[in-house]
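Q: Hi! First time doing this. I have a protein sequence and I read that you can turn it into a structure. Is that right? Here it is:
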Amino acid sequence: MTKLLGSLALTAMTLALTPRAALADDVDTIRGSFAVAFSSTPNAGNVAYCGGTALPTAVEAHGDGYSTLGPLSFSLQKTSGGGLFHGCLTLTAPNGDVLTATYDAQGNSPNANHFSSANGKLTFTGGTGQFSGARGNAEFTAVFVQFYPLSSFVGGTSAPLQGMAFYLVEGTVSTHE
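A: Yes, that's right. Below is the predicted 3D structure, encoded as structure tokens:
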């Protein structure tokens, strides 16, 4: 019994002293919510993000939120058209560490009060600092509303379409250094 306990103690100390990089990937659950403001314009330059297709509308969104990984700012560049969205998402921690992801979504029809929704997937593609080498996936839902569409390019002016979006995200992120 003493030999067994000694062996278990030695194994526990060895694992405790093993550098993090030598262990299996660290897998974290990411659950979070984010509030963002967005601006949308016609994609006159046929811009595409993260290897996607140049869809008819270019969208930029910025905001912040809180997740199981801590507070994160949210920066998204995507194109949209025909109910599809594709782009690049950057989540930034207060210390400057960055988590990057490819963003894909399918939009749903607006409700009677003009709130729209979308469901999608984030594919984590890397990062810096604590997110170095990040890989994984997360599902998200988004609810958004557009402000004053008739005074934007939709109404025939050159002004961007603006609005707010609210995201719920849940998935896993694997990091290794």
